[in-house]
Write the structure tokens for this entry.
Amino acid sequence: MTLAETQALFAGLLTGDEPAAPGRIAACFAGTPALPAEARVGIYAGMYRWRHADALRATFPALARWLGEDRFLALATDYVRAHPSDHHDLGRLGRRLAAFLRDHPDRGRPDLADLAALEWARQEVFFAPPIAPAGADALVGLSPSAFARRRLALSPALRVLRLAHDAAALWRAIDAGHAPAPPAKGRFAVAVWRRGFDVFHGALALDEAAALRGAAAGDPLARVCAAFGDRAEPAAAAHAALSRWLEEGWILAAR
Amino acid sequence: MAPTRPDLGHGIGLRTPHFARFLEERPPVDWVEAVSENFMAPGGRPIAVLEKVRRERPVVLHGVSLAIGSVDPLSERYLSDLSRLVARIEPALVSDHLCWGTHRGQYLHDLLPLPYTEEALAHVARRVEQVQERLGRALLLENPSAYLAYRDSTMREWEFLAELARRTGCGILLDVNNVYVGARNLGFDPRAYLDGIPVEGVGYFHLAGHDDQGAWLLDSHDHPVPPPVWELYRHAVRRFGRVPSLVEWDDAIPPLEELVAESRRAAAIEAEELGGPRRRLAS
């Protein structure tokens, strides 16, 4: 067999694309009575399955904990079959898991896709580039017109998620070892960010999430603050939000 | 090309559970080895830890995803990430494995053994030269742990590795535990393996533990270095002389002190076998 043929056979045996026909295995791989060739290939096939599942478990600990060992391994196996790793960093394997769960919602709860989206965002911000947040006085001393024209540069270690379920509450219940409340469909927003080396997430009001998305898209502050227009006191709400964004290090600059 | 055997002493693998210790203090190890892929992200805690450690002691970058033996083209994205990390860390050495691990663009995330044929040798040699040219330095390749062999192989693993080093100038990262595991799993004499490796070609040793599965040994890196591997290490020291060593521990990782103790043991064995003064570990 050529090197290419050998690798195609071996890869297929690991991924399950190639049926483990004893004749083909014996023609390529050497075995012994104590450990036949099929068993030797099986060692690698088992490690392939477990290594991918372990990587996904590290990225999605709450999802893994809720599903339990067997159901999580089954999910990981199905997911890797659908989306084999195409990056040298095994930590990126799970980037399509939330979408996969949305397309295959039969894993126990309809909110697991949103939980996976939250956990993936936590992973992303953990490895985001280093940040140098703006100082607390970044928006101080500006004239009203200058303030209105400023645009914010937001942290690359910040994600704003729009979710169809309260994934933050589900994550909290699983993390605390409590039984989660039944899933309820709705409109939810969650911010995920890194401060120092620690990752945080927290619920956002929908208008604040819209304001952050606008800021990320390059809207001037006048438009960003307009997102709070339905509040009883819009200016106070916008002021509180901007203060919090500065405090949490979400704003890198106001230009 | 950079020298392939700097006088590093005896080190340990830098692993996540020990990050806090390395940030807060200066553990008494001569050098550390970092798994390249775990530090390629531009930000976050891992790279910050590695940069702090690098300011204090030598670092070796050890990759698992180069896939030097795959028939897939070498990954430009991987080489680019690795080059960036090498420029950032300025490691003493850069190593990966004699293996393949990608197929049609898919990463299999394993260190799969190659058939040891002339075709594979020519293929790997071409790619080693490409990588060395890209990095501007010698690459070291580690002998893999193996659970199977190919019927088509026409040479022994050590013959393949020695010839690869001769053709390309690459260094050899000699994993003493992998030699022992392979010897048990495939039925060869581990000392014959060591004796078939050119003395000048070895850049550093790996030492690790394994798990006995009955009919075979698993290269698990979750145990102390077992007595037969220490014995084989003694033989290696006698043959290769003063060579840096590195204790790997990747699962069920113990307290840092236990890893450091394993590293000290390697230093002590080296001193016993070579008769010189016992190397003092950095403090």
Observations:
- Chain A touches chain B through 47 residues (CB under 8 Å).
- The longest strand of chain A covers residues 188-195.
- Chain A has a mean pLDDT of 95.
